[in-house]
């Protein structure tokens, strides 16, 4: 007979995993032991209750909790696998992580463990607001750490935690197209449950002849970290960020209250959830977002190569391409590209409402430059009757990122006024082996003012979101630690110095980013912190690099304690 949840939990040793805090302390060896010492002196009361502590729920209490939830509690050992090799083969398939209540894609947060799962204590396979409420009551009663996990895409390990009870939202798949009337919006909308993925929303919208704003990546959770963190995607230049689309959030707050936050009620909570970062203002049950009449879509892709001897010409083309971006994004185009030491790949450019001819004309400066330098290229463009067809034909399949990431929001003014300096920094990074990916768009006019939602106001100045990637090794852990340090201390600063007081996308950034409060949240940090405190008086919601996370430190054993 399989052991019960209660038996398993009582047998668990103190859970060991990589603490992001440990990684954080690598930055300064001298001070790394200090925070731990301080907590030891203060005693366990300053910490969340951890497996093995006297305060940890008894087997009977776990059993009772499971039964109030109708048996939906899962011990999170789903990715335990007899052989590491077998697991590594399936690791790169996002579905492995999406189907698991506990596994996350950012392998760095697994402490070089053969079993790439993180030992949450238990996950609730949630299906309703009342499931959320019961879980919040339980973690409050027992002082246990809480985590909200949707797809596990978060690069910063925000959807995992040792000794936590996780609310797993993946199976909440409600989707409805509604004619909506309110004082602030009249028109088509889509209501989506917490577990809806980007591709599911696109497919449903297509059947209703509407467009819904989502990400480039099909498997990202639209209602979770994506919209709550800002959210960019192929329709951003035309309609704005994901966070700009929100009309209503159904959300359970830190006190267990279910509320509907809109521009006219719980405005502060509504505002914070629109781009202020996932996982910390409340547990979202559903999102109601604007939907737009369907239009035809043109899209293009392109590749050309840097073979070493044509490197100067190659980068000259890239410079011309960057200078053409303002015209593209102003025409409603979103451009996604990858730059590696050996090639440039456009993957793709999406132009809702534009003809193929108009899109081709926007690429003319780049193509002329390629011809001038006699660089061979492949360029392909097509007009599609629907967004979904364009998306399916032109998007390259995504795998779990094999890179450690860092990011920077590149302001339009830099490309317009000093593209030379930007190009020289990019070339230096890429020549050094750093992968670079860019997503260009214009969201300057999609909100009445940059303060209308909590998304970093710096988005409104953007020409492109730059994401840097360093290699990730599944066999050499020390190399990963070195690469992570290099990202923080050497690579990102090369971009940062070109745009002092700049920003980064909190969902695609370095988890060790210095001054993350201002870099990720801009001038909104203080206000967001106050809203978090208002709806979470006991500070139950925590995620690394999230608002208020500086009040907590994760110890080496994974235990979460007040800083
Ligand atoms: C391969 C890949 C491609 C990506 N492409 C894009 C892109 O095109 N555009 C873009 O903007 N971003 C993109 N991202 C970044 C993505 O938006 C973030 O990783 C985001 O956090 C994912 O949200 P999730 O809910 O799917 O993931 P999770 O890791 O499950 O959750 C992320 C955060 O949101 C919180 N959260 C999740 N659900 C809820 C809920 N119901 N209530 C409250 N908090 C919740 C979690 O606690 C966590 O803090 C990409 C990431 C990857 C790995
Ligand atoms: C990580 O793994 C090492 C080696 O297996 C182990 O000593 C350590 O306790 C683990 N946990 C953390 C958070 O470092
Ligand atoms: C929770 O209860 C259900 C229904 O009794 C049971 O099937 C399930 O195994 C329990 N969870 C665990 C992990 O014990
Ligand atoms: C979670 O619940 C859904 C129903 O909401 C069910 O289909 C699914 O099998 C459950 N998953 C696990 C891992 O228990
Ligand atoms: C590199 O590419 C250029 C054109 O882009 C070509 O003229 C040159 O012959 C190539 N060199 C090598 C070594 O392949
Ligand atoms: C461009 O897209 C077309 C249509 O999907 C595809 O056949 C082709 O391989 C792609 N080309 C490049 C260079 O990505
Ligand atoms: C461009 O940036 C470089 C590096 O920051 C700086 O030295 C140079 O003065 C700038 N040029 C202009 C025209 O702003
Ligand atoms: C954004 O719009 C404002 C007001 O129209 C304008 O002043 C500003 O230059 C624009 N910024 C960008 C980056 O387009």
TrEMBL record:
<comment type="similarity">
    <text>Belongs to the oxygen-dependent FAD-linked oxidoreductase family.</text>
</comment>
<dbReference type="Pfam" id="PF01565">
    <property type="entry name" value="FAD_binding_4"/>
</dbReference>
<dbReference type="GO" id="GO:0016491">
    <property type="term" value="F:oxidoreductase activity"/>
</dbReference>
<dbReference type="InterPro" id="IPR016166">
    <property type="entry name" value="FAD-bd_PCMH"/>
</dbReference>
<feature type="signal peptide">
    <location>
        <begin position="1"/>
        <end position="23"/>
    </location>
</feature>
<keyword id="KW-0732">Signal</keyword>
<dbReference type="InterPro" id="IPR006094">
    <property type="entry name" value="Oxid_FAD_bind_N"/>
</dbReference>
<dbReference type="InterPro" id="IPR016169">
    <property type="entry name" value="FAD-bd_PCMH_sub2"/>
</dbReference>
<dbReference type="GO" id="GO:0071949">
    <property type="term" value="F:FAD binding"/>
</dbReference>
<dbReference type="InterPro" id="IPR036318">
    <property type="entry name" value="FAD-bd_PCMH-like_sf"/>
</dbReference>
<dbReference type="Pfam" id="PF08031">
    <property type="entry name" value="BBE"/>
</dbReference>
<dbReference type="InterPro" id="IPR012951">
    <property type="entry name" value="BBE"/>
</dbReference>
<protein>
    <submittedName>
        <fullName>FAD-binding domain-containing protein</fullName>
    </submittedName>
</protein>
<feature type="domain" description="FAD-binding PCMH-type">
    <location>
        <begin position="116"/>
        <end position="294"/>
    </location>
</feature>
<keyword id="KW-0560">Oxidoreductase</keyword>
<dbReference type="InterPro" id="IPR050432">
    <property type="entry name" value="FAD-linked_Oxidoreductases_BP"/>
</dbReference>
């Amino acid at each position: 007979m399989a052991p019960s949840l209660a038996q398993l939990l009582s047998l668990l040793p103190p859970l060991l995993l990589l603490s992001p805090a440990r990684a954080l302390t690598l930055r300064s060896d001298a001070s790394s032991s200090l925070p731990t010492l301080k907590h030891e002196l203060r005693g366990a009361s300053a910490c969340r209750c951890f497996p093995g502590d006297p305060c940890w729920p008894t087997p009977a209490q776990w059993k009772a909790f499971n039964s109030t939830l109708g048996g939906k509690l899962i011990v999170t050992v789903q990715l335990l696998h007899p052989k590491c090799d077998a697991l590594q083969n399936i690791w790169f398939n996002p579905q492995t992580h999406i189907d698991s209540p506990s596994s996350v894609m950012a392998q760095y947060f697994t402490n070089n463990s053969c079993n790439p799962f993180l030992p949450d204590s238990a996950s609730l396979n949630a299906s309703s607001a009342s499931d959320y409420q019961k879980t919040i009551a339980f973690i409050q009663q027992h002082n246990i750490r809480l985590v909200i996990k949707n797809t596990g895409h978060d690069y910063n390990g925000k959807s995992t935690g040792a000794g936590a009870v996780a609310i797993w939202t993946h199976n909440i798949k409600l989707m409805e197209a509604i004619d909506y009337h309110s004082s602030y919006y009249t028109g088509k909308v889509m209501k989506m449950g917490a577990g809806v993925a980007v591709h599911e929303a696109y497919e449903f919208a297509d059947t209703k002849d509407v467009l819904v704003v989502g990400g480039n990546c099909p498997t990202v959770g639209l209602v979770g970290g994506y919209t709550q963190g800002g959210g960019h995607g192929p329709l951003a230049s035309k309609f704005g960020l994901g966070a700009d689309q929100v009309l209503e959030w159904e959300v359970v707050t830190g006190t267990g209250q279910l509320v509907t936050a809109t521009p006219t009620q719980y405005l502060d909570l509504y505002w914070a959830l629109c781009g202020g970062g996932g996982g910390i203002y409340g547990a979202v049950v559903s999102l109601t977002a604007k939907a737009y009449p369907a239009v035809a879509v043109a899209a293009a892709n392109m590749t050309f190569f840097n073979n070493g001897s044509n490197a100067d010409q190659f980068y000259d083309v890239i410079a011309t391409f960057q200078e053409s971006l303002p015209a593209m994004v102003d025409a409603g185009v979103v451009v996604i590209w990858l730059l590696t030491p050996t090639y440039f790949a456009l993957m793709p450019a999406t132009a809702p409402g534009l003809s193929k001819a108009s899109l081709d004309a926007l690429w003319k400066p780049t193509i002329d430059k390629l011809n001038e330098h006699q660089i061979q290229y492949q360029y392909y463009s097509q007009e599609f009757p629907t967004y979904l067809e364009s998306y399916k034909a032109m998007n390259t399949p995504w795998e779990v990122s094999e890179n450690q990431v860092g990011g920077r929001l590149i302001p339009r003014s830099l490309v317009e006024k000093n593209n030379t300096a930007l190009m020289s920094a990019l070339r230096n990074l890429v020549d050094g082996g750093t992968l670079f990916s860019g997503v260009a768009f214009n969201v300057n006019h999609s909100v009445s003012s940059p303060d209308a939602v909590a998304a970093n106001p710096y988005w409104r100045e953007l020409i492109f979101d730059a994401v840097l990637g360093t290699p990730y090794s599944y066999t050499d852990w020390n190399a990963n630690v070195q690469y992570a340090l290099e990202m923080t201390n050497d690579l990102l600063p090369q971009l940062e110095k070109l745009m002092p007081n700049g920003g980064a996308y909190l969902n695609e950034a370095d988890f060790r980013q210095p001054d993350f409060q201002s870099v990720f949240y801009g001038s909104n940090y203080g206000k967001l912190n106050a809203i978090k405190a208002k709806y979470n008086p006991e500070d139950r919601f925590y995620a690394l690099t999230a608002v208020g996370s500086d009040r907590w430190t994760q110890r080496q054993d994974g235990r979460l304690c007040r800083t």
